[in-house]
Design brief:
Strand 3 and strand 4 form a beta hairpin. The chain is α+β, with helices and mostly antiparallel strands and 156 residues long. It contains 6 helices and 5 strands. The structure holds zinc ion (3 copies).
Length: 156
């Protein structure tokens, strides 16, 4: 979603945050991690792992091997820089990485737009509901499917 004016800025910002998060946790922001993050951020739509592999094969001289790319994706996920949307089996760049947050996604099944919606009220409700079963929530990722505002306005 995020109608940005210049997507270059979104990519730059995402890479800057990647660098910063790695630096502050003493990890290396290797070339492949940077490249994969950049490819996830190619647009505001979710990216599939094979699209990323394909892209890498196109612009790199030595194409990256799938396990290397999967490891990089895992690293980015672990560091909160990208989120995995299991219902789509795809990845999306986090718009506010570094902050410990639970993720709620609104996924438009018509145009494919995905937006991250943060709601501390929802987080609390989930924690309360889980607590009733004696369960402690560590992380949650909720994927909500429906129609985005634009697609609701113009029903096909
Ligand atoms: Zn953008
Ligand atoms: Zn996020
Ligand atoms: Zn839509």
């Amino acid at each position: 979603m995020d109608p940005c004016h210049e997507h270059e800025h979104c990519i730059d910002e995402a890479l800057r945050q990647g660098e910063e998060i790695c630096r502050s946790s003493g990890q290396r922001f290797t070339d492949i991690r940077r490249k994969v993050l950049q490819l996830v951020w190619r647009s505001h739509k979710p990216a599939k792992a094979y699209d990323i592999l394909e892209q890498l094969a196109e612009d790199e001289t030595g194409a990256a091997k799938p396990p290397t790319v999967y490891r990089a994706l895992e690293f980015l996920q672990d560091n909160g820089l990208v989120h995995r949307l299991s219902s789509l089996n795809a990845f999306i760049g986090c718009t506010h990485p570094g902050k410990q947050h639970q993720c709620y996604f609104l996924i438009c099944r018509i145009c494919g737009d995905v937006s991250e919606c943060c709601s501390s009220a929802l987080t609390r409700s989930l924690q309360n509901a889980a607590a009733q079963s004696g369960f402690t929530v560590e992380s949650s990722c909720v994927e909500i499917s429906g129609r985005c505002s634009r697609c609701s306005e113009n029903p096909a």
